[in-house]
Design a protein that fits this description.
With about 375 residues, this protein is α/β, with parallel strands linked by helices. It has helices spanning about 15-30, 65-75, 85-100, 125-135, 145-155, 170-180, 185-190, 205-220, 235-245, 260-265, 280-285, 300-305, 320-330, 335-340, 350-360; strands at about 1-10, 30-40, 50-55, 80-85, 105-110, 140-145, 165, 195-200, 225-230, 250-255, 270, 290-295, 310-315. It has 2 domains: about 1-170 and about 345-360, Glycogen Phosphorylase B (Rossmann fold, 3-Layer(aba) Sandwich), CATH 3.40.50.2000; about 175-345, 3-Layer(aba) Sandwich (Rossmann fold). The strands form 2 sheets. Strands 3-2-1-4-5-6-7 form a 7-stranded parallel sheet, with helices on both faces. A 6-stranded parallel sheet has the order 10-9-8-11-12-13, sandwiched between helices. The chain is globular, with a radius of gyration of 21 Å. About 45% of the residues are buried.
Length: about 375
């Protein structure tokens, strides 16, 4: 069976990384896999994927992928297409319709539909909603990465077919990457507990809240914080760290190629986001044995942590509550066997089986 994984852009964000992991997992199971990418950001090294054929369409915008996808579907005739993100899902469905493709198509939604669609006539998000309504019939499956998001789609569309299928997080390669050596001195020569966070340094990640929480925590307990990632707020966050006199306690080392080895050696992982789709990074940290503390943001953290069974949930945009949650996590870490139980739904075998069952393709 020939499977196409479609991605609009390769960078270091959650969606393309999840799709690459999915492509590799399918190839490892013996499927013929094409990874079709609109554009590969040249500032990042593209990883080697054993057994996966990579096709870059050299299109920077999703709308520009329509004709190349049409040609691909006509010439290469995949049996199944998995795409991710609503803009690309809509384009893939239209390409399949005009190509007369017989491929089964599964489109995955990764962010809240409230940020994707609008009821305000003739806006871009309104046009996308009408477009998606017009082509939705062609999808054999439409999925969301969290149960909460499925409920949101039911509020946006009339009786949509969306069901929940999680991303693959726990796979063999990730387990190996956890064991790699780490370079950061705070983790090599650990003198006090180390907290870890990761993500784009962007407003919705709430890292300013987390830095304020570190100031609050420092009044009662000594701990250090490493925030992995880069982004537009770097200068602002560095200034905040200096203003709060936290330069010896908070470090922003920038982008790292393998955050898993950091998670595996830290004590607590903190997700301070204001909004998520389903935060893969939270599951990755739990897989690495790191006790999670997360804001109760939409969507995903409450679902992953099972209302607090597998970690500590705190209100959004509340540094004092976040500091209290971190302190509780340091006092009473989540046992590693319980964390292992929590990540079972994100195992590659479980996720692939779920996808194939929904499409009626069982081996």
């Amino acid at each position: 069976m020939k499977i196409c994984i479609a991605v609009s852009l390769y960078d270091i964000s959650g969606v393309p990384l999840a799709q690459l992991r999915f492509a590799q997992a399918l190839a490892n199971k013996g499927y013929e896999v094409d990874l079709v990418i609109g554009h590969i950001d040249p500032q990042y090294d593209f990883p080697e994927l054993a057994g996966v054929t990579v096709r870059e369409l050299e299109r920077r915008h999703v709308r520009g992928m329509l004709l190349p996808l049409w040609r691909y579907l006509r010439s290469d005739r995949p049996d199944v297409v998995f795409s991710a993100e609503d803009h690309l899902n809509a384009v893939v469905l239209l390409a399949a319709i005009i190509a007369g493709s017989q491929a089964k198509i599964s489109g995955s939604s990764r962010v809240t539909p409230f940020d994707t669609y609008s009821n305000v006539p003739f806006t871009k998000r309104w046009v996308l909603k009408q477009f998606m309504r017009a082509v939705m019939w062609r999808a054999d499956a439409l999925t969301c990465v969290s149960k909460d998001m499925v409920d949101q789609y039911r509020r946006v569309f009339d009786t949509p077919p969306h069901v929940c299928v999680y991303n693959i997080v726990d796979d063999k390669l990730s387990r190996l990457r956890m064991q790699e050596a780490v370079e950061h001195g705070w983790l090599i020569h650990k003198q006090e507990p180390v907290l870890i966070a990761a993500g784009s340094l962007a407003p919705w990640k709430g890292f300013a809240d987390l830095i304020h929480a570190m100031k609050e925590l420092s009044r009662s307990r000594r701990a250090r914080l490493i925030i992995l990632g880069d982004g537009p707020l770097r200068i602002e966050l560095e200034a905040l760290i200096a203003e709060l006199d936290l330069t010896n306690l908070v470090d922003l080392p920038g982008y790292v190629g393998n955050p898993l080895k950091y998670f595996a050696r830290a004590d607590v992982f903190v997700l301070s986001s204001h909004v998520e789709g389903l935060p893969n990074v939270l599951v990755e940290a739990m897989m690495c044995g790191c006790t999670p503390v997360s804001t109760d943001c939409p969507t995903g953290p409450r679902e992953i942590l099972q209302d607090g069974k597998y970690g500590y949930l705190v209100p959004m945009q509340d540094p004092i509550a976040l500091a209290a949650g971190i302190e509780q996590a340091l006092i009473k870490p989540i046992p590693k066997d319980r964390l292992a139980e929590a990540v079972q739904p994100f195992d590659e075998e479980t996720v692939i089986k779920r996808h194939l069952e929904i499409l009626g393709l069982t081996r």
